[in-house]
């Protein structure tokens, strides 16, 4: 009866005798030697604390996008903690702390690198996401992300934000573009915008807008029986000097026609060039504005104008490439991290 019961409840499989101890060790060693980690689908994850948010992400993806991060994690460090706590980044209780980074910026950056990893488009990224991607890519020297985000962001930004980010990342071409747009913008410069860019930059923008408006005027032509014909500035009535530009035939005017489309007049008193509103005048006016901006961007040019100022809003948003070294790496990693332009 007992034998029948055991037979009916036991699984239907052949019985096998236990291997000798020696054979078992050999089999175990053989099985372990043949197990390998897949190169594509075996990821090492780490926990990061950014502000008050924990992120659990693949370290391999972060290392792949930045040489700075690769160098940081390649620094030898003690994996065993003295208090028996998990290795840094291995659990929520002991995360890697990213100082000077905002959670929203880090989240947007992860959206970007994961999308690139798995071949999806970046169309799901919003304008603010692209700004965040650029900020993190600039901080961690992620060349591909930096190049792509710069091309996208510069086309999406309004002039004020473009100016702030130009100051933040030291992009003279962005600052120049912002000045050009603000100089010819129909809307007046608001008080909030002045606070954002700072007093000094506000003065520069006001000067550019003044030059733009006044330069669209033409000189006042007067004929004196004894002194002959002269051209005066319409604002200070100073006699102005003539400068010829463009092609007279293109302007459709004779060389003796005062105020013609290819003539401009420089007023040293008002520091403006009277160009007029025609097509050639607009071209000359753009050159005048570009020259004014060049004076602002190049304080060593010994021309009037000074370095563009940065207001409190700009200084508050500026990030240095900084001193971030994961806890546990400090001491050994500080020098090398800074030398590489550390995180």
TrEMBL record:
Gene3D superfamilies: Potassium Channel Kv1.1, Chain A (3.30.710.10). Residues 329-343 have a biased composition (Basic residues). It comes from the Eukaryota. Residues 44-157 form the BTB domain. Residues 323-343 are annotated as: Disordered. CDD domains: BTB_POZ_ZBTB_KLHL-like (cd18186). InterPro entries: BTB/POZ_dom, SKP1/BTB/POZ_sf. This is BTB domain-containing protein. It comes from Schizopora paradoxa.
């Amino acid at each position: 009866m007992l034998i029948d019961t055991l037979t009916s409840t036991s699984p239907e499989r052949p019985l096998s005798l236990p291997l000798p101890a020696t054979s078992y060790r050999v089999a175990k060693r053989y099985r372990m030697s043949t197990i390998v980690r897949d190169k594509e689908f075996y990821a090492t994850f780490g926990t990061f604390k950014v502000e008050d948010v924990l992120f659990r992400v693949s370290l391999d993806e972060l290392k792949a996008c930045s040489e700075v991060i690769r160098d940081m994690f390649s620094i030898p460090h003690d994996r065993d903690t003295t208090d028996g706590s998990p290795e840094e980044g291995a659990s929520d209780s002991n995360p890697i702390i990213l100082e000077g980074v905002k959670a929203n910026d880090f989240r947007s950056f992860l959206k970007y690198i994961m999308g690139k990893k798995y071949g999806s488009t970046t169309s799901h990224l919003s304008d603010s996401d692209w700004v965040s991607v650029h900020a993190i890519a600039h901080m961690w020297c992620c060349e591909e992300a930096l190049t792509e985000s710069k091309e996208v962001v510069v086309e999406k930004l309004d002039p004020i934000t473009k100016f702030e980010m130009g100051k933040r990342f030291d992009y003279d071409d962005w600052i120049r573009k912002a000045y050009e747009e603000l100089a010819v913008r129909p809307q007046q410069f608001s008080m909030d915008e002045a606070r954002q860019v700072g007093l000094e930059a506000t003065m520069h923008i006001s000067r550019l807008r003044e030059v733009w408006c006044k330069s669209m005027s033409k000189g006042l032509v007067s004929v004196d029986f004894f002194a002959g014909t002269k051209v005066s500035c319409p604002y200070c009535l100073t006699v102005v000097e003539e400068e010829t530009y463009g092609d007279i035939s293109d302007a459709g005017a004779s060389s003796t026609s005062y105020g013609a489309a290819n003539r401009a007049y420089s007023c040293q008193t008002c520091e403006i060039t009277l160009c007029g509103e025609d097509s050639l005048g607009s071209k000359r006016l753009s050159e005048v504005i570009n020259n004014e901006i060049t004076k602002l961007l190049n304080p060593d040019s010994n021309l009037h104008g000074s370095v563009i100022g940065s207001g409190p809003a700009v200084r508050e948003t500026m990030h240095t490439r900084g001193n971030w070294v994961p806890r546990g790496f400090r001491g050994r990693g500080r020098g090398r991290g800074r030398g590489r332009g550390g995180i």
